[in-house]
Amino acid sequence: MVHTMKNPVIYTPRGAAREYAEWACNVYRGCTHGCSYCFGPSVGHATREEFLKAQTRGPDFLQRVEADAKRLSQDGKIGFQVHLCFTTDPYQEFESALHITRDTVKILHKYGLSVAILTKGGRRLLPDIGLYGPMDAIAATMTYATKEDTLREEPCTAMPQERWEVLKIAHEHGVPTWISCEPVLDPAQTLYLINMMSKDVDHVKIGKLNHDSAREAKINWKQFGQHALILMDRLGYKRIFNPDDAVRANAANRTYYVKSGLAKILEGA
Question: Mind listing the domains of the chain with CATH numbers?
């Protein structure tokens, strides 16, 4: 029997987000990282200023996570991976004090679910590194390689080198790793990051820039996509066409996925 969840906090993403995960959960409301390209305010129907004043999702949030996880377990979703997070960062600054992400992960594991963490929080994740295992995944969004560009576009995030450092540690602990190359703000820097980080990254998601038509128009997306395909092949990654196959990516089975927006350009659609 499939249970219907009323107002679930674990949900099935739609649209482009579904290319990242079948299940997801946002552990906070809003985000303090201040990324210039963030789509979170529009999704949450908030102003940028409101969104930057991140907050918890209420005193009953963890109870709701447990109820949803229990239902998923009862519906046979054992081993399914829950993505944290799409509209917030699970390791923004006050996670170190509140531990809501940590508690969420423990609950999901309790019911046989695995976790994919996507964060720009860098070393804030490391106190929890022991929570994650080979059925989970740890990932970082990688946009710029330079400190100057990162401070301008992602002012309160960890620097690129720090994000890479955390992925290296995760990789050494046997936790599958991946990077999200979306948005692409500087194609040359994106390709550089993929190349430099390849030894520590099991899966790569490659997209483009959305929600900013002026900046998007300045980039030759077909050229970028072609260069990305050549690079991935040279680095020994195998392209997958079903995003859910990325869950099985690991050091012995390295994969990459081209998101539909970029894939359509490459196909000439």
Answer: 10-266 (3.80.30.30)
Half-sphere exposure of 188 (CA within 13 A, CB side): 1
Length of the chain: 269
CB 136 within 8 A of CB 162: no
**CA atoms 107, 112, 116, 122: torsion sign:** positive
Contact predicate 15/73, CB 8 Å: no
Numbers of helices and strands, H then E, in the chain:
11, 9
| Extended beta strands in the chain, E state | 10-11, 23-25, 81-84, 114-118, 137-141, 177-181, 203-206, 238-240, 255-258
Indicate the SS3 state at residue 87: coil
* Sheet with 23-25, edge to edge strand ranges: 10-11, 23-25, 81-84, 114-118, 137-141, 177-181, 203-206, 255-258, 238-240
Examine residue 31 and say whether the peptide bond preceding it is cis (omega within 30 degrees of 0).
no
pTM for this prediction: 0.93
d(CA 148, CA 161): 13
Name the residue among 235, 232, 163 with its Cα closest to residue 199: 235
- Using 50, 70 and 90 to split pLDDT, how confident is the model at 43? confident
Contacts with 167 (C-beta within 8 Å, 6 or more apart), sequence order: 138, 139, 140, 177, 179, 197, 200, 201
Report pLDDT digits (tens) over 89-118.
Answer: 999 999 999 999 999 999 999 999 999 999
Phi, psi of 141 (to 5 degrees): -80, 130
- From the list 252, 180, 255, 267, the residue with the least C-alpha distance to 221 is 267
